[in-house]
Amino acid sequence: MKRLQWPSWMPIDPYILLLLGTVGLAALLPARGTGADVASGASTAAIAFLFFLYGARLSTREAVEGLKHWRLHATVLACTFVVFPLLGLAARGLEPVLLTHNLYTGLLFLTLVPSTIQSSIAFTSMARGNVPAAICAGSFSSLAGIVVTPLLAAALLGSSGGGFSADSLVKIVLQLLVPFLAGQVLRRWIGGFITRHKKVLGYVDRGSILLVVYTAFSEGMVQGIWHQVSAVRLAGLLAVEAVLLAVMLTLTWYGGKALGFQREDRIAIQFAGSKKSLASGLPMASVLFGAHASLAVLPLMLFHQMQLMVCAVIAKRRAHDPEAATTPVPPVAASRIAVGTAPRSD
Questions:
Q1: Which of 284, 241, 256 is nearest to 47 (CA)?
Q2: How many CA atoms lie within 13 A of 230 on its CB side?
Q3: Which of 53-62, 136-145, 253-262, 272-281 has the lowest mean pLDDT?
Q4: From CA 19, how far away is CA 208, in angstroms rounded?
Q5: CA–CA gap between residue 7 and residue 214 (Å, rounded)
Q6: Which of 50, 157, 259, 285 has its CA at 20 to 30 Å from residue 205's CA atom?
Q7: Which residues contact 74 (CB under 8 A, 6 or more apart)?
Q8: Above pLDDT 90, what percent of the chain?
Q9: What sign for the dihedral angle of Cα 21, 310, 82, 266?
């Protein structure tokens, strides 16, 4: 009998399964009392360490060199922090008919977080696009998001963000920006160590995010906010996110053409400008929303998996475009295509 296999062009990120398992654990065994205090403290430390590592990994020299392609990076930043939020605001009309207030707040927050790095690079490479541009665009977006995302949240979410206040901005600075800057300052001494132990530190990244998710969803269970979500509401959320992703993929591709970008640059713009970072968004939501973070990150978690599946299909098709015939596939991309692996969660 023929063995059934999941299509390689439709990746299910294993990390999403771990995230869902963590959500299930929080639902069955939420942290309470002293355990909740310990989990909260560990989560705070994990978030700070995450952004310290982000700062230590970012090469300042590569970022400066990437500024030479400033029009492309400005386009990606505009898609990420202008077009996306405008679409999020436009979706306000869907509340409360299709989305509850908390789900809409999470959807709007989703539109405010920075773009991805790893998956943008992987898909751009697979589609024979401008990989260096994708690297710099993702890095610039992540760097800008540390400052821009909290400011946009303050302006657009206000008090609806689970008690968002000036105190939240202080927490952002102390838990995200200060560790990130510390990582940048110490990069010249620890950069080699970070590079040599990249794989191990990657597991630390993912483990830290799982801890953040467990803490957030535990608080949500204790507060009883999950009773506000129904299967119909979740289906409505998925439909809205599918439309949001389709609009952004269309705008980034044809908008890049209208702006006069070449095919390779348009590919980088499409993949970097249409996606949102799970790795950056989850810790930020934990800081900004507190006990309401579980519902706030649900739209982001769903959107993350959706963007991986859809962009994998697009990247495979772009790789077989007639225009791509003369563009070689980079070795990293070729190995990914051969084994059918999904890009790393970011």
A1: 284
A2: 6
A3: 53-62
A4: 11
A5: 30
A6: 157
A7: none
A8: 27
A9: positive
The DSSP annotation for 12-52 comes to --HHHHHHHHHHHHHHHS---HHHHHHHHHHHHHHHHHHHH
pLDDT for 194: 87
Rounded to an integer, the average pLDDT of 324-330 is: 51
Task: Assess contact for 283 and 223: CB atoms under 8 A.
Answer: no
d(CA 161, CA 157): 5
Read off the amino acid at residue 315: A
CA–CA gap between residue 327 and residue 320 (Å, rounded): 10
Q: Which two tokens stand for residue 281?
A: 């968004």
Helices (H), the chain: 14-28, 33-57, 60-66, 70-78, 84-90, 101-110, 118-126, 131-156, 166-172, 178-196, 198-223, 231-258, 263-273, 278-289, 293-319, 331-339
Distance of CA 343 to the CA centre of its chain: 12
Using left for φ > 0, alpha for ψ between -120 and 50, and beta otherwise, residue 316 falls in: alpha
Task: Give the model confidence (pLDDT) of 241-252 as tens digits.
Answer: 999 999 999 999
219: exposed, middle or buried (C-beta count within 10 Å: 0-12, 13-18, 19+)?
buried
Cis ω for the linkage preceding 114 (within 30 of 0): no
Contact by Cβ (8 Å): 298, 106 = yes
Q: What is the mean pLDDT of the chain?
A: 81
As a whole number of angstroms, the distance between CA 145 and CA 66 comes to: 17
Global pTM reads 0.80
What does the pLDDT look like over 259-292, one tens digit per residue?
999 999 999 999 999 999 988 888 888 888 766 7
